[in-house]
Amino acid sequence: MDLLIFSIILFIICTVASLIGVFLLFLIQTRKIQNVVFFILACWALYISYMNASTIPISHIGQQMLGWAFGFLAAIALLLRYAGKTEARYRISNVMVALSIVSSVLTLFLLSR
């Protein structure tokens, strides 16, 4: 019972931290601070994708691939962010990281039961 309560509290903390990070990514206007928040969120998205893929049983390959796909989306966003310096690429990479985080948290909640 204690492990269940701990898991629920940990999931709530992860969800709240992810939502706060995504809101900060879009609300901060200073480019330097936004780059730091972006990098932290991209690493967070990769970690959540790892947690998602590693908690699913090995016999569910499709669900594991879905978990890794959202991490791959964050990796592409990192490459896109630092490969080009145009405003459009900054915005697209922000949206990609936000999608990766939200999708990873949702799949962690829905598929890991």
Summary, kept brief:
The chain has helices at about 1-25, 30-55, 60-85, 85-110. The protein is mainly alpha-helical and about 110 residues long.
Question: What are the SSEs and their pairings?
Answer:
Blueprint: H1 2-27, H2 31-55, H3 61-83, H4 87-111
Shape: flat
Rg on CA atoms, Å: 15 Å
Mean pLDDT: 89
Instruction: Tell me what portion of residues adopts beta-strand conformation.
Output: under 5%
Would you report the number of β strands?
0
Please report the number of helical segments.
4
Described by strand count, sense and barrel closure, the largest sheet is:
none
Poorly predicted runs are none
Counted up, domains total: 1
Distance between the terminal alpha carbons, to the nearest Å? 16 Å
Question: Which key terms come to mind for this protein?
Answer:
mainly alpha, 4 helices, 113 residues
